[in-house]
Amino acid sequence: MIEFRNASVVAASSDAVLLAPTTLALSERRVSVIGANGSGKSTLVRLVNGLAMPTTGSVLVNGRDTRRQASSVRHDVGFLFTDPSSQLIMPTAIEDVALSLRRTIRDKGARTTAALTALDEIGLAGHSHVSVHSLSGGQRQLLALAGVLAVNPSILVADEPTTLLDLRWRAHVDALLDALPVQVIEVTHDLDAAERADRTLFLDGGKVVFDGKPSRAVALYRDLMSSRAEGRADA
Questions:
Q1: What SS3 class is residue 207?
Q2: What are the pLDDT digits (tens) for 158-188?
Q3: Residue partners of 154: CB distance under 8 A and separation at least 6
Q4: Sign of torsion, CA 173 89 149 94?
Q5: DSSP strand E in the chain: where?
Q6: Cα distance between residue 161 and residue 69, in whole Å
């Protein structure tokens, strides 16, 4: 369960409101988050694992406050970025996944075995000792996902995980996310993916303007974007 309790975010440098006070609880297995660039989507989901902290209010994950119990929350919440380069650090695939396991598995041999298992489960066993830089964009995103899932989070936050991928890899990553046995909160511009969720949050101007049925959220989003495009054309 993820709870936003009157949580807001204000930019320290400019006092701009990045997220208006928000109160909601997310318990559904699949939640999609949609909206235009700059609408507050990433700010909202970064609050879930403490990558961002609320200026006012609080965010709780399974009853734990992200501000006071950040380390515990981050153990439960994995985060997948748009660009896998943001989270791939080590030279080879197996080393990168093993790095994710360093706090939970102390023994180096056991850690290597666990890393190989994680790569196998994601379909990258044959690339375990390959340079990260020689992997395709889709393979790098899979590797980033393997590193996140290796520590067994109960919640995965994915911030536009397929934006940089071609159609083939987008479909592959989408299928993997759909099949995960954990709660997935996905920010996406892929409206087909958004509609497969159990619930959709539509953000605009730093506010959640719709919260509910995915098909309705997508329809409202399309209408708003169309009306704004027409307004620019008439100006």
A1: strand
A2: 999 888 888 888 888 888 888 889 999 999 9
A3: 62, 76, 77, 182, 183
A4: positive
A5: 2-10, 17-26, 30-34, 56-61, 64-65, 77-80, 155-159, 183-187, 199-204, 207-212
A6: 26
Q: Is 208 left (phi over 0), alpha (psi -120 to 50) or beta?
A: beta
Confidence check: pLDDT of 40 > 80: yes
| Alpha-carbon span 200 to 72, nearest angstrom | 27
Question: Nearest to residue 213, comparing CAs of 225, 203, 198?
Answer: 198
Does the reported pTM lie above 0.90?
Answer: no
User: Comparing 165 with 215, which gets the higher pLDDT?
Assistant: 215
CA distance 91 to 95: 7
| Other residues' Cβ atoms within 10 Å of the Cβ of residue 103 | 10
235 pLDDT more than 60: no
Please, which residues bridge with residue 184 across strands? 30, 156
Domains (range + CATH), the chain = 2-234 (3.40.50.300)
Q: How far is the first Cα of the chain from the last one, in angstroms, to the nearest whole number?
A: 45
15-29 pLDDT, tens digit per residue, is: 899 999 999 999 999
* Residues counted in the chain: 235
Segments of 37-182 assigned E as strands? 56-61, 64-65, 77-80, 155-159
Residues 14/181, Cβ–Cβ less than 8 Å? no
Digit-coded pLDDT (tens) for 63-104: 999 999 988 898 899 999 988 888 899 999 999 999 989 888
Strand partners, 8: 56
